[in-house]
Design a protein that fits this description.
disordered C terminus; 4 helices; mainly alpha
Length: 180
């Protein structure tokens, strides 16, 4: 690696002073504002700050605080899932039929409009496929990482046990990350 650069000083030349253009007397008086009389702030204009009885930033020691109680996840209705699934399929079919009718109408008006609409529909379908493929790849990657995480935690637990490190530290970490 190279040596650190030593500090250096540079001389800065002063900028040349430009002399203002002489202003004619009548024009200067025309643009000059009358002098304002100074005034002080009255006591009624001063804001008074009073601290609240409860300081929201004084939360105390978070590590010793008791964690909030666990809340059971809300049960979802199976009928609701079926309804929204069927509604999604119905909307997809409606969009498909609308696109088909639009392309047929554009072909009946002019062939180039129909081919343009077909190209735009193909680009939209291709982009949807790419988005879905990217999401599926990310989901597979996430699942693989979740499967490896408990194995890595167990390896850390074994290494710490060999070194004679506290079981309390290791077991607390293991429980937090979902290990055995």
């Amino acid at each position: 690696m190279s040596e650190p650069r030593r500090p250096a000083a540079f001389r800065i030349e002063p900028e040349p002073k430009l002399e203002p253009k002489p202003v004619r007397e009548p024009e200067a008086r025309r643009h000059a504002e009358p002098a304002r009389r100074p005034r002080a702030v009255s006591k009624s204009d001063v804001a008074i700050v009073t601290p609240d009885a409860i300081d929201v930033f004084d939360g105390g020691d978070i590590e010793t605080a008791e964690p909030p109680p666990a809340v059971a996840p809300r049960r979802r209705s199976r009928l609701g899932a079926i309804f929204f699934g069927a509604l999604g399929i119905l909307v997809s079919l409606a969009v498909g039929l609308w696109t088909d009718a639009l392309i047929r109408d554009l072909f009946s008006r002019a062939d180039w409009l129909g081919w343009l609409a077909t190209g735009v529909a193909a680009i939209a379908a291709l982009s949807l496929v790419v988005i879905l493929a990217r999401e599926l790849f990310a989901h597979r990657h996430f699942k693989r990482r979740q499967r490896i995480l408990p194995i890595k935690i167990n390896e850390v637990h074994q290494r710490l046990a060999r070194l004679g490190t506290s079981q309390q530290f290791c077991c607390g970490r293991q429980r937090r990350f979902g290990g055995q």
